């Protein structure tokens, strides 16, 4: 259980932070940047939730919770040492990925295939979901970079990859099931 009785601890004043396993690392480390960008993705989801209703709002709420799970996973490195910890670390699992895939497939059934790239916009919710998508892609790049240097749960990468696709399709749903998508016109302003 998390207990936050004191918000500032002063332990990070020298530019270091603690990982979930207690190790101290630089705040600019790629791992901290990766889970920090996952947190940023979650903040954009919070903005999108302000404009969502019904099933979309519920899905975004689940995703927001998943992103906290993902942050917990990423802040506790060395999966192969999990047994040596005094607690069981939270890890992303296949079920979270397959849920996103099912939701993408269900949303995609309502959409006509694209014949052009789309621009962010249309509705406020669609624009917010495209912002979620781009920040999510940045988080994915940082997690992949972390994985080239340190141990990272492969399901963490897969989740982010699928989530950015989810945001793209959800953005189309938010645009009147794709009818109000803003299409890219190559060279329009030449």
UniProtKB/TrEMBL annotation:
> Which SUPFAM superfamilies does this one have?
Cobalamin adenosyltransferase-like
List the InterPro entries.
CblAdoTrfase-like, CblAdoTrfase-like_sf, PduO-typ
The protein's UniProt keywords, in alphabetical order, are: ATP-binding, Cobalamin biosynthesis, Cytoplasm, Nucleotide-binding, Transferase
Domain Cobalamin adenosyltransferase-like, by residue range, is: 7-173
Instruction: Answer whether the UniProt record assigns the keyword Lipid metabolism to this protein.
Output: no
- Per UniProt, the enzyme's principal EC class comes to transferase
GO annotation, biological process:
cobalamin biosynthetic process
Spell out the reaction equation it catalyses. 2 cob(II)alamin + reduced [electron-transfer flavoprotein] + 2 ATP = 2 adenosylcob(III)alamin + 2 triphosphate + oxidized [electron-transfer flavoprotein] + 3 H(+); 2 cob(II)yrinate a,c diamide + reduced [electron-transfer flavoprotein] + 2 ATP = 2 adenosylcob(III)yrinate a,c-diamide + 2 triphosphate + oxidized [electron-transfer flavoprotein] + 3 H(+)
Its EC number is 2.5.1.17
**Major localization listed first in the record, in broad terms:** cytoplasm
Which Gene Ontology cellular component terms are annotated? Answer: cytoplasm
> Of which family is this protein a member?
Belongs to the Cob(I)alamin adenosyltransferase family.
- Name of the protein this chain belongs to: Corrinoid adenosyltransferase
Lineage, uppermost ranks:
Bacteria, Pseudomonadati, Pseudomonadota, Alphaproteobacteria, Rhodobacterales
């Amino acid at each position: 259980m998390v207990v936050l009785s004191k918000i500032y601890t002063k332990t990070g004043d020298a530019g270091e932070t603690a990982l979930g396993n207690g190790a101290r690392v630089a705040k600019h480390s790629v791992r901290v940047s990766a889970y920090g960008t996952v947190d940023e993705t979650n903040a954009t989801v919070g903005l999108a939730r302000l404009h969502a209703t019904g099933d979309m709002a519920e899905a975004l709420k689940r995703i927001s919770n998943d992103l906290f799970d993902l942050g917990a996973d990423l802040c506790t490195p060395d999966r192969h040492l999990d047994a040596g910890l005094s607690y069981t670390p939270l890890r992303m699992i296949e079920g979270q990925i397959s849920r996103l895939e099912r939701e993408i497939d269900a949303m995609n059934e309502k959409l006509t295939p694209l014949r052009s790239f789309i621009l962010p916009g249309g509705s406020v919710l669609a624009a917010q979901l495209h912002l979620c998508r781009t920040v999510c892609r940045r988080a994915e790049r940082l997690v992949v970079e972390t994985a080239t240097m340190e141990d990272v749960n492969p399901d963490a990468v897969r989740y982010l990859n699928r989530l950015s696709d989810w945001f793209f399709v959800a953005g189309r749903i938010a645009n009147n099931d794709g009818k109000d998508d803003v299409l890219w016109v190559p060279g329009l302003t030449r």
